[in-house]
Amino acid sequence: MTNRRANYINMVDHLTDIPLTNIEKETNLTRESPYRQNFHIESESGSLGDPNGFSYFNKNYHLFYQWSPLEFSQNPHYTHHGWKHLCSPDLIHWQDLGAGMESDTRYDKYGTYSGSAFPVDDKLFIMYTGNTWVNTESDDDWQRIPYQIGAWMEANNKIKKVCTPFITGTLKGYTGHFRDPKVFKKHDKYYAVLGIQRNNQTGSAVLAESDDLHNWQILGEIKTNHNKFGYMWECPDYYELDDKGILAFCPQGLESEDNKFCNIYQSGYLIGKPLNMSDRNFVCGKFHELDKGFDFYAMQTTKDKKGRRILMAWMGLPEIVYPTVKYHYTGCMIFPRELKLENNVIVQQPVAEIKDLYSKKYQITASLNNKRIEIKAGKQNSRDIELAIVGHNDATILDLFANKNNSRHLRLIFNRKKQKFIVDRSCSGLEIASSYGTSRSCYLDQSKLIKVRILQDVSSAEIFLNNGKEVFSMRIFPDDMQNFIYLTSENGEAKIKATINQLKVSKVGMSLKDN
Amino acid sequence: MTNRRANYINMVDHLTDIPLTNIEKETNLTRESPYRQNFHIESESGSLGDPNGFSYFNKNYHLFYQWSPLEFSQNPHYTHHGWKHLCSPDLIHWQDLGAGMESDTRYDKYGTYSGSAFPVDDKLFIMYTGNTWVNTESDDDWQRIPYQIGAWMEANNKIKKVCTPFITGTLKGYTGHFRDPKVFKKHDKYYAVLGIQRNNQTGSAVLAESDDLHNWQILGEIKTNHNKFGYMWECPDYYELDDKGILAFCPQGLESEDNKFCNIYQSGYLIGKPLNMSDRNFVCGKFHELDKGFDFYAMQTTKDKKGRRILMAWMGLPEIVYPTVKYHYTGCMIFPRELKLENNVIVQQPVAEIKDLYSKKYQITASLNNKRIEIKAGKQNSRDIELAIVGHNDATILDLFANKNNSRHLRLIFNRKKQKFIVDRSCSGLEIASSYGTSRSCYLDQSKLIKVRILQDVSSAEIFLNNGKEVFSMRIFPDDMQNFIYLTSENGEAKIKATINQLKVSKVGMSLKDN
């Protein structure tokens, strides 16, 4: 635990306490990165983590995220933690509103941990977890005390914290791992679902209730059929789609099961009848992974004015070291997705607003028999690719981020013979988390038409199979010559129809006028 | 089907009909390959396939294999197919006895397909499938007529075919895919188990019976709980270990299931009570893959004078193109393994005779915390590596076939956090069958000591986990600078004990005196 103390030596409450030159040193280095995204939210320096307070309020989408802008600063190393604040009228163009919340009170001194936001009349209510430590004089026996606390944001985007915690410490029978309140409203009452760890080292979610968003009462655990499912549940979310209830959360500590649960931590959901608020029974089936890719965590949803359920998530994972650390930043968000229900599972699609980023359009129809073709669709790795494949072959292979001779690529394999989809990033560029494997896969029926959609950015790909029934999100760190696309049919014929839209740059932090 | 006819234009019955210079052209090219193995059986030119007639007879192990020595010959392209014959006193040093059987009769003109051998007094009985085609004048309607035929080998290794087929054509209700008789003896009767395809395009195994090895009677299908399990079963084998019956076979046409059945075709077994010979009921459980690696097929066993059940198999797969084709050869055998039963599953280990190949021994004890070390164990990729790992980390990584900077390697990942073993050959050298994925994996309990054994040859690795409970076999085609070994512990400490024996060269085809 000595390292922990070292982390806090130059801890500052406010970003304004840090000399501007030190901050600029970080942002200048980050700007040099060849991996900066074109249309995904990322941090202008330091680390980006969980999305927080995702909401539609005052004619704008608001998004906060876990932010440590000085995470990689050196000589001296500063520690500063808070919530970055962004807002957007359209989920595409985001304005950077700076440090929305900072770790500046006795209840959140050691971390303005994750939380959510909920619009109430002309204000936005924010509820989050403040992290604190006691017994910090000891070398190895720091004790975690969590506080569930709140804040209110006005229409002018000014945020004021509530002075007293709603819930102090943890609950009886549980450890100090108690966090990430997600607020929702049902039957004119407010509720929050929170992640918690039982003393027996299993994870769960508890429900809290409030009439006034000030006095909160713990109701107890949400009762599911997943009582021994990881040692901690982070970032729970509860919402309803059609007539179903969805309890989403991020279980930590699951062992791999075949080709499931391959990442360091998981993200997924239970689906069932709407949660019974009186007895907290949630009658549900098995746990579904929301995203089967390499990099996806801490998802959070909100409902917008159009009634859509929109998903945001961190395209990254805790503890995984990404190669952008060299440029003193790490992490990005997924592109926002709309969630719908189809045959009792969630299907995901990029929000329709993406069309406003379309620039040049390429349409390709091809029939290839046992051969490889190049697909020409501009030089920028910023594309919305839609592909329809009818195979009479053993396998169809789509290589993205390919170099000219195709020795490097992100490889998407549609193996018809094995009815399997594989995404293989082993030869895609810099190594990332290879001890968790370099490919991900799922069953894919290829007896009929396969539909694939891929959002490709400078250093990421989000793959949507069959209208978003299966999604794979991932970071890739290619060389700058890796902008070719190849398509191969092995042992037989594949008929292909592709529509590829180049996407305009919509970098975060730009003033909206610039775009 | 026009291609099929093209294949037979220069078909010759006997190798001796081909000019010696044309054969030498092939073997000379093969000798230039940098991928030639040091202690695994491979073909001196052309293709090596299924092991056949594996037996212990006249103080020697006899092994045949499917052999097309002119498979890659050009200008002119010759077609010749038969069984290569090898024999060995010790399963290590093999003498090349040339073309044991050739496709030279009207019953095996289009292929001396797979079969088995069984010692009877002072002779070796051979039973195999002869492939023939009728209606070959048509372009696209060739009909396959299989014959189950035999031969007898004398103590002087001379083989004489039996003039009349034992079984002509296929059975009623079945297609022409009827082959690969494996002979065994039970209760003083001879039996053969054969692979067959039902008219409804599902695979099965049938049992034939004989008192005299000449008059054979079809008894019917072996009745298992696997009635819809692939479209064809190749290379069946039946044997007993302890008090259990094993029905091994190679099902074709299985879809992938999670991380199972990833290769183009599968190899595995059902285990149950000994086969009831009168009603052919085989009461058994689920299908186990015998080898979870990339390259393993058409296994065949025999019992030797010590009572051991020895396994041979092709370290390769049908239809997969290996990069050695450039040197006009392909395929090799696994190193022979002894099979035992443990908790109702087969466990596999290299035969103990391998110790006779040991030359220099390296012993390494190391404790590494969050770091990478090089393990020095000679420059030749010919090693028997035994490793014991106790991890208090997230993952331990063993890189074999590594280049100096470790950008290329065969990577073995022991991910403790996910209780998963992964072998990743994506960055190991030349690309092989990447549309079937570049990694294979299984569950591996890492709460206790992990034992790993690896037989490493110039272009292959056979990985035995926990005393051979899980085995992964694979080909690798590295650069010649890829002879480093690295060991890494991620996020914590790993204690390692390694014993590495360099292995002597024991190439097939050398006269025994040379060794």
From TrEMBL, chains A, B:
<dbReference type="Pfam" id="PF00251">
    <property type="entry name" value="Glyco_hydro_32N"/>
</dbReference>
<dbReference type="InterPro" id="IPR006232">
    <property type="entry name" value="Suc6P_hydrolase"/>
</dbReference>
<keyword id="KW-0378">Hydrolase</keyword>
<dbReference type="GO" id="GO:0004564">
    <property type="term" value="F:beta-fructofuranosidase activity"/>
</dbReference>
<dbReference type="Pfam" id="PF08244">
    <property type="entry name" value="Glyco_hydro_32C"/>
</dbReference>
<keyword id="KW-0963">Cytoplasm</keyword>
<feature type="domain" description="Glycosyl hydrolase family 32 N-terminal">
    <location>
        <begin position="40"/>
        <end position="350"/>
    </location>
</feature>
<dbReference type="InterPro" id="IPR013148">
    <property type="entry name" value="Glyco_hydro_32_N"/>
</dbReference>
<keyword id="KW-0119">Carbohydrate metabolism</keyword>
<keyword id="KW-0326">Glycosidase</keyword>
<dbReference type="InterPro" id="IPR001362">
    <property type="entry name" value="Glyco_hydro_32"/>
</dbReference>
<dbReference type="InterPro" id="IPR023296">
    <property type="entry name" value="Glyco_hydro_beta-prop_sf"/>
</dbReference>
<comment type="function">
    <text>Enables the bacterium to metabolize sucrose as a sole carbon source.</text>
</comment>
<dbReference type="InterPro" id="IPR013189">
    <property type="entry name" value="Glyco_hydro_32_C"/>
</dbReference>
<dbReference type="InterPro" id="IPR051214">
    <property type="entry name" value="GH32_Enzymes"/>
</dbReference>
<comment type="similarity">
    <text>Belongs to the glycosyl hydrolase 32 family.</text>
</comment>
<feature type="domain" description="Glycosyl hydrolase family 32 C-terminal">
    <location>
        <begin position="355"/>
        <end position="501"/>
    </location>
</feature>
<protein>
    <recommendedName>
        <fullName>Sucrose-6-phosphate hydrolase</fullName>
        <ecNumber>3.2.1.26</ecNumber>
    </recommendedName>
</protein>
<dbReference type="InterPro" id="IPR013320">
    <property type="entry name" value="ConA-like_dom_sf"/>
</dbReference>
<comment type="pathway">
    <text>Glycan biosynthesis; sucrose metabolism.</text>
</comment>
